[in-house]
Amino acid sequence: MINLLPPDIRQNIMYARRNARLLRWTVGLLIGIVGIGLVIGIGYVYMNKLGKDYATQATQAQADLDKQNPAQTQKEVEDITNSLKLVVQVLSREVLFSKLLAQIGASLPSGSVLLNLSINKLQGGIDLSAGATDYQTASQVQVNLQDPNNKIFDKADIISIQCTTDGSTYPCTATIRAQFAQNNPFLFINGTSTSK
């Protein structure tokens, strides 16, 4: 097809087509900018509302926490923690007295008796008093208690030996401070070894 239109009209038609395309692009671009503006505006409004909602929730949560008295709750938790620590300490030093007394009685020499037994404030130690028929037997009590074959004490020290002449069956009294052996089967924590 041959275009026989004069050059001015052809040029006007060409520019008109270009203008129509540019107008479409401009309208599309404006619609895109308006769409992006709407998305940003809606997003801003939504984020602002969400922020206010979270601020309200945080204020409400803080008010609820203040009503619950967190300082008192923290103090109660610390008290419970301290009590549990005390229980663990007591159990770690707990002595199985029924088995311990039998073993101490078996280790005492002939002519002596156990008079008194008390756990002192030193960790893992015990004070005991034994009556004896004479001074020699009273000192033998310390030797027997420290004997590693008894598995009771690592160390036993004589605090005092006092003898009287009052005519009683056991005129001498030995006071001994002893330290429990490391693997003592008569302590509560190590007590599992006695059940074998």
- Count of helix runs: 4
CATH class of the domain at 95-188: Alpha Beta
Secondary structure category:
alpha+beta
Topology order in helix (H) and strand (E) letters:
HHHEEHEE
Order of strands, widest sheet:
1-2-4-3
Shape: rod-shaped
The named CATH superfamily of the domain at 95-188? General secretion pathway protein M, EpsM
* Number of DSSP E strands: 4
pLDDT < 50 runs, ≥5 residues: 190-196
Helicity range = 55-70%
- Termini separation (Å)? 114 Å
Radius of gyration, whole Å: 47 Å
Write a compact overview of the structure shown.
With 196 residues, this protein is of the alpha+beta class. 56% of the residues lie in helices and 18% in strands. 11% of the residues are buried.
How do the helices and strands line up, and which of them pair or pack?
Layout lengths: L6 H62 L1 H24 L3 H11 L4 E7 L6 E8 L2 H12 L6 E11 L8 E9 L16
Antiparallel strand pairs: 1-2, 2-4, 3-4
Task: Give a description of the structure.
It is a single chain. The protein has 196 residues and is of the alpha+beta class. The chain is rod-shaped and about 155 Å long. A four-stranded antiparallel beta sheet has the order 1-2-4-3, with helices on one face. It has a domain at 95-188: General secretion pathway protein M, EpsM (Gyrase A, domain 2, 2-Layer Sandwich). The longest helix has 62 residues, at 7-68. It has helices at residues 7-68, 70-93, 97-107, 135-146, and strands spanning 112-118, 125-132, 153-163, 172-180. The N and C termini lie far apart (114 Å). A hairpin with a 6-residue loop joins strand 1 and strand 2.
